[in-house]
Amino acid sequence: MAFHELIGQSAARAFLQRALATGRLPASLLFTGPSGVGKRQFALALAQALNCPEAPDTGCGICATCRRIAQGEHPDVKLIVPDGAHIRIGQVREAIRFATDLPYEGRRRVVIFERADTFNTAAANAFLKTLEEPPAHAQLILISARPDALPATIRSRCPVVRFALLSPEEVERCLERYARRPPADQRLLARLAQGRPGTVTGLDLEVYRQQRRALLELLTLLGQGNAIPRLLKAAQYFGKLERPDFEFALDILASLVRDLVCLKVAPAAAETSRSLEDRLVHSDVQPKLAELADLFPLERLHQTLNRFEAIRRDLDRNINRVLALEAALLELSARP
Length: 336
Fold this sequence. Notes:
This protein has 336 residues and is an alpha/beta fold. The protein is 54% helix and 7% strand. The protein is built from 15 helices and five strands. A five-stranded parallel beta sheet has the order 2-3-4-1-5, sandwiched between helices. Strand 3, helix 5 and strand 4 form a beta-alpha-beta unit. The longest helix is centred in the C-terminal third of the chain and has 23 residues.
């Protein structure tokens, strides 16, 4: 998908197009910003602009070259994704050989590293010399939602292109293009995206709603404050899920708690029901949330959100997820 077809990210787009037009595109770039906001699509658009024979330095998006790049089938463009939890030294060595070879049919060889913050130490060290002296015909693009996790030696050698959350209007346009659903589902997806449409385009809403129902029941137990054994059992169940499933459940739970905070702080006399609905992620279950909001002190809800954020930050440190979730749930369930 060429630059002119992409949605949002006007600052990043302007920087890249200006650099292409002036011939001052850095040989290595670090694309940073939240997950799901279009970093990978922009990296592929840049690869198209560098190799498109019909619209050099722009990319037409429709020629055979542009289509093959978009489909991951072009011999001069390589996408590197983590092998398990890490990008490993073997992958980096393969990428270096690829970047060093002359283009097969295009003008530039492009290597894109997805989740570059997962470089293991050996891979990062092996990549440094190529970053310091990149081949003249190569373009290196590192993509990361967690740039601080990259070694400083790599960050310092890559000019940063920053990507931001999309506006609600841009999210709706993205979902119209990539994830058209019935109106009720479309509204829920737009709210769940929170500026990151890429995180919800493939979401199975039936599974999501089932999980949400279970977590609403859990919050009801927490509000009652008298079902500790069941809370501990729930923490055991969710804490022992595989990490992606655990993060999925934690995200739903955190978004439900944020909605409870919103309901607690919204001054009923000064805010219309419509504007409140616009602020809630889970507005389709607002009556149930309103019942739950009465069960929790505002301060405790804020503390719980901080707990959830700490759990997410510590996941890379292999924390005991069961114990961490138990502590958060027990704190929320404590009676005033």
